[in-house]
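Example record

One chain of 188 residues, shown exactly as stored in the release files.
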Amino acid sequence: MQVSFRKVLLGSLVAAAIAAPAMAEVKVGVIDYARLLEDSPQAKVVSEALRAEFGPRYQQLVTQETSLKARGEKLQKDVATMTPEQRTKAEKELRDSARELERKKQEWQDDSNAKRNEEMSKLQRSLIGEVREYAKGQNYDIVIAEGVIYATATVDITAAVLTALQAKGPKPAAGAVAPAPAKPAAKP
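Predicted structure tokens for this chain:
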């Protein structure tokens, strides 16, 4: 029993000695992809483009909603002095306007979400390419982006990649999209 234990121990030590230098040569980097998506100049360009494209329409919806609320309040005040026909007509117009506003809100939401998803997909592909380029240039063997619970600062290359992205500057956004502004307030 003593002899076989020594052989196993010796074999394990030899295997560890052989594997240790191979492991020491692997250069590993960890990237905080969420931070890259949030802080990169390219992401900021996409965000501003989305705001520029969908912000004015959003503001129109907010204005229409404010107007609709004012009309509803006016109807509540004037209902006592209106004839039944006037009241019915005003209520119908208010309901129709509310439906139209809801339709426009949904249309805006669908359009902005579709454009945002399209632009974020392009941005993600671009950032992955930039990370690959950086990793190859710095001779990394592996770069891990997801599933990392803890990484020391020595292997976290997020700041270095962000610096490289900032040095390159944002690429012009041809129809780029940013996160959509806050959703319009709920219907009255």
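Notes: Residues 173-188 have pLDDT under 50 and may be disordered.
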